Amino acid sequence: MMKSPRHDFMLQARFEQPPETLWEERVRSTVMTGLAVRDNQSSVVQVFARKDHRRWRYRTDVYVDGERIFFDMPWKKIQTFSGVTIRSPPRNMNQSELEIMFASGAGLRIEESRGLLNVVVALPHTFNESNWRSWEETKSEPFFWETTTQTPIFSRFDKCSTYYRTVGLLGTYNGDPYDDLTTPDCMEIRTNYPQSEPDARNIYYEFGRLDRNLHIPSLFQPEYKPIYDPLSFADDRYIPLFDPWHHSDYSSWSGLIFSREEVKVLCQGVPACEYDFMSSGRREDALDTLEYERKFELKKQKGEIR
């Protein structure tokens, strides 16, 4: 999210545990199955991945300000609402691909695959981190809005209290990868990629969980409940799988489905692909992760050239 004199952007996501493995074990990881987004005073857009028994026609449910919309007709492929435009590719009739574009220039590309959402967020340069002292006030925009992050206990004059910046799980948009994992109280979590088990554990407890527990009004409307078990995304006792290669995390039953050599060959050294294969036991999930990561890197390279 970000809050500045020009932007009031909020993106919230829901995560839940995927189905059990083929050897009937619970998967100790989560996938994104729903999101809600708003920018300034725009309409609130909600997108949910449908469950398996409801995916025979549409792959997603899309709501704008509480009203369900569809993109299965040629004249419905581009729809404009208050401050936001939603587009679906012309040949996509099952709503598995969506593009959400806000008037501020912020945009999301959503792709559904096997009941989960893959989301790419694109932000214009105006979302870049900026010092509030150097902000030029305009007549049409209010000034001295509160910054998004909370004021730290030890200092009132660090970057979180004097800069307008994006915060949350997506990191800080300023071209510096070292402060992407910034907690709500402005503590920077340093790590390497791929992470070791202690690093992954530290990121989860010192960064990820803190963003989940923020007291922020929810953009999700309670009357729409595509997730049937609330404990699957709100269980405080949930402990994720930090290192799938660790011996204690490796089930003997999984050896009947795949081998570690197969994982290494299939994933081509991509840690996210290896994690999804080892945790879920499904080859197709790993291939989807590998494909999406390759596509993202290609789009990133094209954007940098332009």
From TrEMBL:
Sorted alphabetically, which InterPro entries does this protein's record hold? C8-3_MUC4, Epithelial_Barrier/Signaling
Subcellular location, record wording? Membrane
Q: Does the keyword Membrane apply?
A: yes
Would you name any one GO CC term? membrane
Coiled coil region boundaries: none
Q: Which UniProt keywords apply?
A: Disulfide bond, Membrane
The Mucin-4-like C8-3 domain extends over 259-300
Q: What is this protein called?
A: Mucin-4-like C8-3 domain-containing protein
